[in-house]
Amino acid sequence: MSRLTGRLLFAAxxxxxxxxxxxxxxxxxxxxxxSYRQPALIDPLFAAFTKDTGIKVNVVPADKxxxxxLRQEGANSPADLLLSVGIDQVVDAVDAGVTQPLxxxxxxxxxxxxxxxxxxxxxxxxLRGRIVYAGxxxxxxxxxxxxxxxxxxxxxxxxCTRPGSHPYQIGLLSAFIAHHGEARAEQWLxxxxxxxAQKAGGNDRSQVKVVMESKCALSxxxxxxxxxxxxxxxQKAWAEAVNPIFPTLGGAGTHVNISGISLTKAAPHxxxxxxxxEYMVSDEAQRLYAEKNNEYPxxxxxxxxxxxxxxxxxxxxAIDLARVASYRGAAVQLNNKVGYxx
Length: 342
Known about the structure:
Oligomer: single chain
Largest sheet: 9 strands, mixed
Radius of gyration: 21 Å
Shape: globular
Distance between the termini: 46 Å
CATH topology of the largest domain: D-Maltodextrin-Binding Protein, domain 2
Number of domains: 2
């Protein structure tokens, strides 16, 4: 397949998805993005970039399969950037060989070292914490200050979580292993399972709902869901029934995950892609992107959204996320060994 054919196929795919900016990708001043993030959450950011620079951003979104698509397209891929919604996806992309390293003084200055790949294969754009949602009528739940406490027998029958096999839970377990080692992580996970009020299942929002219904005293969930629930009529009462608590892990801070971005191995518009990437860590873009997604900026000093300010003080764990990600395999094996989802 020629590169021209590949670029036309990219445009066709974007038209099929009903996206803006999906005309045939033949101009020099453009960037093609494969995105795991929903278009509504990134379109305003890309529109602002285009307005400032005249560089068009073409986006093809998908819930899954983009890494495999890049692998199959190889050197003929029209994609310049891969936008991911978790550390698991950015690491999978690197492992699949579909990214290339990038040296950028702007990115290295703006993004803390623990939030980017040492070789420059990926960079964090926003942060989300995995926190405790405690029922307002459960005083003992509101006293939680650490993740380690969640395994305390005093919380037996009071905790609800989504499946342990989900990437969000695997990420937290990976961080626990990074801080404390596998033996203590296994002990903790067994204690957490013993404290479940019901079989692990559902999603983060449904856990908050059952806390509101007093079926659990506390749950685990990502920070951005708080803002999403407040914005939805049916779910607003769920959010109003809980207090967000930012526990620490190993005394270091709250466990975090990221949305990340990588320069693809083919990148036919590398210069414009780098320009977009560097724009995304500007103060303006960080504020806009983080606010739209109810997430935290990775650049220090950027003002938080009103919802995030309302939630309380957030001190992210400063552990190297590349190190945390290296324990994902061990976390999956440990989750299966403990039978957390059984």
